[in-house]
């Protein structure tokens, strides 16, 4: 019967101590950030390239919005 349990004298030496709560919080935050990065780049071979393209597209859209006269929204009607 007691073959699965270690002797009580050796159990204190083999016990695993839990880390400091601050260390544990930091490790959990790092793991969550890593999972988030992996999830966001799932299916994308070069995540950096995608981010650069997205930033470039936003910059182009900002330029287009700034160059529009009078804030008309860029739509013009032509009758002719």
UniProtKB/TrEMBL annotation:
<dbReference type="GO" id="GO:0005789">
    <property type="term" value="C:endoplasmic reticulum membrane"/>
</dbReference>
<feature type="region of interest" description="Disordered">
    <location>
        <begin position="1"/>
        <end position="80"/>
    </location>
</feature>
<keyword id="KW-0449">Lipoprotein</keyword>
<dbReference type="GO" id="GO:0010508">
    <property type="term" value="P:positive regulation of autophagy"/>
</dbReference>
<dbReference type="GO" id="GO:1904240">
    <property type="term" value="P:negative regulation of VCP-NPL4-UFD1 AAA ATPase complex assembly"/>
</dbReference>
<dbReference type="Pfam" id="PF15811">
    <property type="entry name" value="SVIP"/>
</dbReference>
<keyword id="KW-0519">Myristate</keyword>
<dbReference type="GO" id="GO:1904293">
    <property type="term" value="P:negative regulation of ERAD pathway"/>
</dbReference>
<protein>
    <submittedName>
        <fullName>Small VCP/p97-interacting protein</fullName>
    </submittedName>
</protein>
<keyword id="KW-0564">Palmitate</keyword>
<feature type="compositionally biased region" description="Basic and acidic residues">
    <location>
        <begin position="21"/>
        <end position="37"/>
    </location>
</feature>
<dbReference type="InterPro" id="IPR031632">
    <property type="entry name" value="SVIP"/>
</dbReference>
<dbReference type="InterPro" id="IPR055366">
    <property type="entry name" value="SVIP_metazoa"/>
</dbReference>
<dbReference type="GO" id="GO:1904153">
    <property type="term" value="P:negative regulation of retrograde protein transport, ER to cytosol"/>
</dbReference>
């Amino acid at each position: 019967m007691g073959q699965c349990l270690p002797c009580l004298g050796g159990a204190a030496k083999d016990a695993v101590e839990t880390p400091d709560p601050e260390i544990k919080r930091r490790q959990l935050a790092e793991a969550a950030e890593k999972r988030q990065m992996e999830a966001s780049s799932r299916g994308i071979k070069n995540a950096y390239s995608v981010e650069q393209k997205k930033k470039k597209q936003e910059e182009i859209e900002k330029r287009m919005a700034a160059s529009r006269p009078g804030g008309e929204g860029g739509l013009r009607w032509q009758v002719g």
